[in-house]
Design brief:
The protein has a domain of about 45 residues. It is globular and about 30 Å long. The chain contains two helices and two strands, in the order H-E-H-E. Helix content is about 35%, strand content about 10%. The protein has a two-stranded parallel ribbon with strand order 1-2. By secondary structure, it is α+β, with helices and mostly antiparallel strands.
Length: about 80
């Protein structure tokens, strides 16, 4: 399953929604990967804080500003 959270307007809650969905799914033992393609890097900063504090569940995060296909694997 792929879930995309997007909107052209800033401050609409995209990152907050994506982070909360990521944690909720991870708590249900789903394999999740959060992709941070926002130049502000808010999700990346959030993930780094979780990692430094050893907050569970651990979250996989991909940070990419260019071609996202170069760091992802097609679903089978």
């Amino acid at each position: 399953m792929i879930i995309v959270v997007g909107c052209n307007k800033g401050g609409a809650g995209k990152t907050t929604t994506a982070i909360n969905l990521t944690v909720a799914l991870a708590l249900k033992n789903k394999d999740v990967c959060l992709v941070d393609a926002d130049p502000q890097r808010s999700a990346s900063k959030w993930q780094l804080l979780r990692e430094n504090e050893n907050i569970q569940p651990a979250i996989n995060l991909v940070e990419k500003r260019e071609n996202i296909a170069s760091v992802t694997t097609p679903l089978k």
